[in-house]
Amino acid sequence: MIARCATVLLHHCAAALRRPLAGLLAMLAVASAVLLPSAVARAHEATMAVITLREIAPGRFIGQWTMPPVDVTLQPIFPAHCQWNPPELVCGERGLTGRLSFMGLGSKQSVATIRVVPRDGSPVAYTVSAAKPSMMVASEPGTNLAIWADLADTYVNLGIDHILRGIDHLLFVLGLIWIVKGGWRLVKTITAFTVGHSISLAAATFGWVGVPERPLNAAIALSIVFVGVEIVKLQRGEPGLTARYPWIVAFAFGLLHGLGFATALTALGIPQATLPIALLFFNVGVEIGQLMFVMAVLALMWAHRQAQALLPRWGAAIPAYVIGSVASFWFLTRI
Amino acid sequence: MKSQSPNPALVLAGLLAMIPLSPALAHTGTGVQIGLQSGFLHPLTGADHVIAMVAVGLWGAQLGNPAIWVLPITFPLVMAVGGLIGVMGIDLPFVELFIALSGIALGAMVAFNVRPPLWVAATIVGVFAIFHGYAHGKELPDAADAVAFAVGFVVATGMLHLLGILIGVAVRWEAGAKAVRACGAAIGCLGVYFLLGAIGIIE
Amino acid sequence: MTRLVRRAGKAGALALFFALTPGLAHAHLVDTRLGDFYAGALHPLTDFEQVLPWLALAVLAAFQGPRVARWVVLAFPLALAAGGALSLVLPPPPFAPVAGVALVALTGLAVAAQLRLPLAALLVLAVGLGLLDGYQNGAAMVATTDRFLFLSGVTVIGYAFVTLALGCAVAFLAGVGGWRPIALRAAGSWVAAVGIMVLGLHLMSRGVG
Known about the structure:
The structure holds 3 protein chains of 3 kinds.
Chain A: H1 2-18, H2 20-35, H3 37-44, E1 48-57, E2 60-67, E3 75-77, E4 83-85, E5 88-90, E6 98-103, E7 111-117, E8 124-129, E9 134-137, H4 145-165, H5 167-180, H6 183-205, H7 213-235, H8 241-244, H9 246-266, H10 275-306, H11 318-334
Parallel strand pairs in A: 1-7
Antiparallel strand pairs in A: 1-2, 2-5, 3-6, 4-5, 6-9, 7-8
Chain B: H1 8-18, H2 22-26, H3 31-45, H4 47-63, H5 67-87, H6 95-111, H7 118-137, H8 146-168, H9 174-198
Helix pairs in contact in B: 3-8, 4-5, 4-6, 4-8, 4-9, 5-7, 6-7, 6-9
Chain C: H1 2-25, H2 35-42, H3 48-63, H4 66-89, H5 96-112, H6 119-139, H7 147-174, H8 179-208
């Protein structure tokens, strides 16, 4: 199927090149794709930093970067009663409780995690992001409601953050909207995509399935190429699989994209105890972000119809070619 | 396709409602916000301004075409001229006095349902608009963010006009017309009170 | 009945759009969580000097009817991008702040007068505004900002904002009632009032300084 898809794309490109104007536009699209990747790659990179604190005596920890920060100015900020003389952290009788935060979170380094390994009990990870720059730490994280609210805040934001930064996921959803147009079919299609990526996100997060990252990303890029080809086919009056059964395609590729979402979560090294709840909140965040994007696209489509600002017939295929070209460029750089 | 698609306006409304306001709120205390707030509250804190502005809307609605649309469009522009005078730091005399007087005049016009030629109406409203704009323009150079301050007081002023016009729509019905005239009478009386305050007879 | 609901929905959407715009404008988030693309997208919305003329431009275009207006959807974002790119190579022109405020007054006055413009004049206005605001946003970037992402954000938000505002304005004007254009003209005169007063302030402070 993948091979067929690629041949179809090449066929379309060749066909486009026979018509000068469309060919020119396709070349422009490829040129823009060549200019895009560096920025896009950076935009979607999980810029994580993880510091692990091991308790060596009651209230005394040794800290070590298990995943050093990209931005050297990034520093953890501990509660006031703790003394931080890297690598030693002394908190005394009260232990490591209070507000944890990071200095220097920003566009370069958006997420940082503090893993605490107590002498007795299982390790706990606290993740802060630029959106949620501090976190309360209590000695008993399992029972405190405020901690759970903190977890919700952190992971919902992380989910929104991840989908809105993930231009490949957004491009795929855009392609689906383009094909399905709107109405109940769109609701069903987006739901199918959601169900699909939720299943595989959970499966990958719990370690039931594992896919190496590079081929996964390449396959995700190819799924976008596929949607681009389907748009062009639909515009030529030959509705493909996506136009006829959009939910099947959405579900199948949803499984693929869910594996991609999981990489953002598994990279954090969340302990098993908090993993289900973190997964739930992360998924909720992803859906919120996805819904925001769908609403924005529908509102813009409505505005375009109102203003009668629609593409002329000769240019109707441009967006599909742009989507397809950008995605095929990603595919080539990712294999 | 149109029949099955969700109402796009509702989609848009939902979308805009979802724009996260928390980051906006997290950054309280910026110049834009302070300017907007103080600008918005400025016209609302002076009762003499408030009643005169509502009277402008009432009178416009009572006069009907073409005043009902000439007034809301030209008022801001005349007000801007007053604002310019204030910005330049020129001292206008008897500001409080003129605002109180225009409150009385506007209230009386509404109460007695006076229908002068448009230019007379425009002049009465214009005098008020200049002094009203002047009072705000004087504050502009000290505002935390001049544009935001101007937007704030312009929005507040516009909403007071709208309030007057919406009340004034009641003139279509007989009882409503009487109620509007009663409002005008009340505004005139308040204007007298502010006039006495402005010339120092009452504290 | 459905038509009525639809119309009410449109009016509501329009009201919400205008009501929330200043709400957004509170946030001056140069450091957002979503990277420099979103920093670029939020930056213009934090500044009334950009939001007001964008709104006025959209309404002015809507007054000309969709056949003329739709070119703004194409020209304005391109000009924004070009202006942003210019900011990378050119030093700031000294007239930029005054020109920005003057455009608030100019676009507001044009809406208040319900000016009939030929396509070329509307495009000149849209391109001029786009170049200037693109330049001003571009100049707000700091050394660590990813220039490509930031300027893409500025361009995308300019496109989305003007397209949505234009769509809302066209839909609003298409409704029944002679008060609709008057309401938009009144809104334009308020924008003009803001522009005139702040322009006076700018010129004054220049004269003194």
